[in-house]
Amino acid sequence: MRTHVTIIGAGLGGLTLARVLHVHGIPATVYEADSSPTARAQGGMLDIHDYNGQLALDAAGLMDEFRGLILEGRQAIRILGRDGAVLFDQPDDGTGGRPEVQRGELRRILLESLPAGTVRWGHKVSGVRSLGGGRHEVTFADGGTVVTGLLVGADGAWSRVRPLLSDATPEYAGTSSVETYLFDADTRHPASAKAVGGGSMFALAPGKGILAHRESGGTLHTYVALSRPQDWFAAIDFTDSAAATARIAREFDGWAPELTALITDGETAPVPRPYNALPVEHRWERVPGVTLLGDAAHLAIPNGEGANLAMLDGAELGKAIAAHPDDIETGFAEYEKALFPRSAEVVAEGNLLQQRLFDDNAPHSLIDMFTEHEQPR
């Protein structure tokens, strides 16, 4: 019986796995490159879905804690024209199945649910190698090592564990976003706050868009999306915030000022986020002693499902290990058998949504998606 599980990566998926294992009395250690839980920002809002992310939290026994994080009203959606006109407006009536929470708060409740010492901070993985017989050695940047018979790569897009299983590497998907924030927007930026509304706002055109979320308080988190080659973004000096902001804003000349202000009035340095993805049908042959979850397994362009899928992966893997504590290979095989088609379906749907956001008929393709009573996934 070798049921001490080594998890690489303390994101939502890795922590969910550790928590579900803990619920079932199975010890785990999570190794994380960050030096502490607050070493870097944890991203913005997440809509946690009743068909995957919430199922994972239920398996983790954390639904009450999750409900305490929900920001009311944030499921509202509006789509605007480049002139600021409201083309579609769907209020949050409280009955939706995709409540919004702050990613950092969700991570906090997962961390607090684990025994002290479960997460080993400041352990950046520099390499992983097979020792044979289903055992692997993980080497850290400080020269330390750990040998494990149960290794899970929950270490994201550029996973150090993935090469044990697959030669696949993420490729640029043709679009990047640039992140900015406005703070205390209802008071200091009222026109932009009114344009965004109470939840999510999409102002779209072919190949580009200004997307924003209302986060906690009066914070507006903006994602300026542009379908441009990587060389185009590389030519912008993002260390010069003013120049970079001006260059991005030029792509939206003539748009309503309350929309362009989401870029030009940004109160944090603009941060480029390239969209990378693994192949939709990414899968691997069973390798004893190791598996993957989350972005390490099925990195996709942003589609609202990444965190939800990672958490569901963690919960399903935890349950599979618990169901076969004396035959982990059977548990891993059952997990992967369900993982591959589940993730491929969601990734394909996410790619379709991304196409509708920025295709030649934008924003009307997205409006049609909502008015046809489809839910983007």
TrEMBL record:
Its main location: cytoplasm. The keyword NADP applies. It comes from the Bacteria. It is an enzyme of class 1 (oxidoreductase). One of its GO terms (biological process) is response to antibiotic. GO terms for cellular component: cytoplasm. One of its GO terms (molecular function) is monooxygenase activity. Keywords: Cytoplasm, FAD, Flavoprotein, Monooxygenase, NADP, Nucleotide-binding, Oxidoreductase. It is found in: Cytoplasm. Its cofactor is FAD. NADPH binds at residue 40. FAD binds at residues 47, 103, 295. Its EC number is 1.14.13.-. Consists of an N-terminal FAD-binding domain with a Rossman fold and a C-terminal substrate-binding domain. Belongs to the aromatic-ring hydroxylase family. TetX subfamily. This is Flavin-dependent monooxygenase. It comes from Streptomyces malaysiensis.
